[in-house]
Structures are given as C-alpha cells and as structure tokens.
Amino acid sequence: MPASFEHHTHWYDLSLKSVSDLAEMLYTYTSAIHGLSTKLTLEQAASLSSQPEVLFMIPELKHELHTTRTPEFLGLGQTTETMPQFDSTGDVIIRVLDTGVWL
C-alpha cells in the first residue's frame, strides 16, 4: 500500500474505480492477508490484474450441490426399519463427514 493512503480499503476502492466507476468492494480481508472481493467483468479483471501492485487474483468457482437431503442420499429413510435403534447403556459411535467445502 502506498504511504499516501491511511487504510487499505481506501487504496482498494481507488484501484477498483480505476477499472470501473461501478465496481465496489463486497468484502475486505484483513486477518491473515490483505485483500478484497468484488464482481468484475473479464475485461475489468484483466485490467486490474495488470496493475503492478496486484499480486494475484482468484476467480470464484461455483459448485453444484450433490444433495440437499443427506438421509435420502445415503439411503436412510424415515422409517424405523432403516434407522438404527440405540440402547442408552451401549456405546455410540458418531462419525463426521468433512466435505472440505469452504465458504
């Protein structure tokens, strides 16, 4: 960030306005890295990425959901025949399925 700016967000805003008067910051990142998210056309993104102070740009990737109904997807219906019955005195195993989805 050039010394003439008091805060990163002012610098980001000016950088975005250099490629489009309508561009606006959707979110700013300040914890681990300094950065921003925005919506740009391909031409605007190319223009912004050509600026020497821009280190890298990561396009948003959209992913389709495989299911919104996990029990049915796993073959578990709502009937008592398919749902396991647990004895309150027995051991219970809980498993977590980490899909690796980042928001």
Automatic annotation (TrEMBL):
Q: Where in the cell is it found?
A: Secreted
An annotated GO cellular component of this protein is: extracellular region
List the SUPFAM superfamilies hit by this protein, alphabetically.
Subtilisin-like
What molecular functions are annotated in GO for this chain?
serine-type endopeptidase activity
- Check the record and name the InterPro entries matching this protein: Peptidase_S8/S53_dom_sf (IPR036852), S8pro/Inhibitor_I9 (IPR010259), S8pro/Inhibitor_I9_sf (IPR037045), SBT (IPR045051)
One matching Pfam family is Inhibitor_I9
> What UniProt keywords apply to this chain's record, in alphabetical order?
Signal
According to the record, the signal peptide region is: none
Every Inhibitor I9 domain range: 3-66
The family assignment reads: Belongs to the peptidase S8 family.
Q: What is this protein called?
A: Inhibitor I9 domain-containing protein
Q: Which organism is it from?
A: Malus baccata
